Amino acid sequence: MSNRFVLMAITAVFVFSSCASLRKGSSRFDSSDSIYVKEDQPKVAVKPAPKPDPAPEPAIVVRQEKVTPVEHTGPGYAYYIIIGSFQVLDNARRFRTDLIKEGFTPMMLESEHGFFRVSVAAFNDELEARERLGQIRRQYEKYNDVWLLISM
Question: Do both 78 and 23 map to the same domain?
Fold first, then answer.
């Protein structure tokens, strides 16, 4: 029995001397010097997603035509912003009525090719006409196909 006691005593000495947490009297990791408790979370740099470039505006279609005003008296202009083109005058009139309800002041023109053009703005300066055309495209998505008519 004394051999057994000696063996148990030696085993106990090895067990208690080999465990660092038992030597300190605590087995809690939050108060220990373990590298796992003190390990900082790695800093991850998060870059914001790049903003997509805005879609380029479609090119402005420009046509030269000889036009005469329909149901309109007043001065002629060099540049007209055309928002609709019709072969039938009554269709152009109905469209003009719809445009008036939307706040435009449309004018109808008859082209030398027999089309009835509905214009929403007229200018004698090309730059002003192009600027207004761009505004209409941005403000009214459904009218992004407006084009510029140069009167001959």
Answer: no
- Coil, strand or helix at 134: helix
Grouping H, G, I as helix, E, B as strand and the rest as coil, residue 108 is strand
Taking a C-beta distance cutoff of 8 angstroms, is the pair 93, 84 a contact?
Answer: no
Is the pTM higher than 0.70? no
Taking only the tens place, the pLDDT of each residue in 51-109 is 777 767 778 999 999 999 998 777 889 999 999 999 999 999 999 999 999 999 999 99
Statement to judge: residues 69 and 134 lie in one domain? yes
The Cα angle at residue 100 between residues 97 and 103, in degrees rounded to 5: 160
Q: Determine if residue 74 is left, alpha or beta; phi over 0 gives left, psi from -120 to 50 gives alpha, anything else beta.
A: left
